[in-house]
Specification:
Shape: globular
Low-confidence stretches: none
Number of helices: 11
Radius of gyration: 19 Å
Mean pLDDT: 85
Structural class: mainly alpha
Helix content: over 70%
Number of domains: 1
Distance between the termini: 23 Å
Largest sheet: none
């Protein structure tokens, strides 16, 4: 797993992907933070900054995941990896942890950096701020697992990227469908499926174990699906 992790981390910085991700994330998140806190004055609301940040994931998460497996399939190097003395779980987890490290490093470092002026010039609610950070990180980790799964289904990076974009948009906006649905059972199902509904608890400073379990389970399920895709391809090549 460690070898795969190091390989993928190296790949992020030997290609423009890692630099593009960092540049887009820091530029856009810095602008959003300034807009929602510095320029907002007394009406500053950092909770809204984190909520808006979720929609940035539509662009930046596919950047991290679109090449992780699809490029391997296109270049046929996935066959070499699958015959290496590592388990399929190690391969998938190595790739996942590399993408998660890229995302987590950028997000957590910016969150710490942005909190400093809030603490100096204001009186932020530390518990609420930490809740938002935990919630956004969990959402990002779930989206990364979905992106890796979609990347494992195709050799085309652009199809992988657009598929991930579509999945993220669906999960972010699925609760909005409730306004068009009268069936209570379906409405409850959509609310349970919605990322934003689960995230709302964290943004209010509420650590609910069912929401925490939801994000962890969502990540685990799509990583399991990715392992199954690798397994199917291994057997089809044998």
């Amino acid at each position: 797993m460690l070898a795969i992790f190091k390989r993928e981390m190296r790949a992020y910085f030997t290609s423009p992907v890692g630099y593009m991700f960092c540049a887009i994330f820091y530029a856009v998140s810095g602008f959003l933070f300034m807009l929602n806190t510095v320029q907002a004055g007394e009406s500053a609301n950092y909770a809204s900054y984190f909520s808006i940040l979720l929609f940035l994931f539509i662009v930046i998460i596919p950047l991290l995941t679109m090449k992780l497996v699809s490029e391997e399939r296109k270049m046929k190097t996935d066959q070499l990896i699958m015959t290496a003395p590592v388990t399929l779980f190690d391969i998938v987890m190595g790739k996942y942890l590399a993408a998660l490290t890229m995302f987590g490093s950028a997000f957590l470092s910016s969150s710490i950096l942005y909190y400093i002026p809030l603490a100096i010039y204001g009186k932020p609610n530390a518990g609420l701020y930490i809740g938002c950070v935990i919630g956004v990180f969990l959402v990002g980790s779930a989206f990364i697992s979905i992106g890796i799964f979609i990347s494992s289904l195709t050799e085309n990076q652009f199809i992988s990227a657009f598929g991930t974009i579509g999945a993220i948009i669906f999960l972010l906006f699925v609760s909005a469908l409730n306004s068009f649905i009268n069936n209570e059972a379906i409405r409850n199902f959509l609310n349970g499926l919605s990322i934003t509904t689960r995230y709302t608890y964290f943004s209010n400073g509420i650590l609910r174990y069912d929401s925490l379990l939801y994000f962890i389970s969502l990540s685990a399920v799509f990583l399991f699906f990715t392992v199954r895709v690798f397994e199917r391809r291994r057997w089809s090549k044998s």
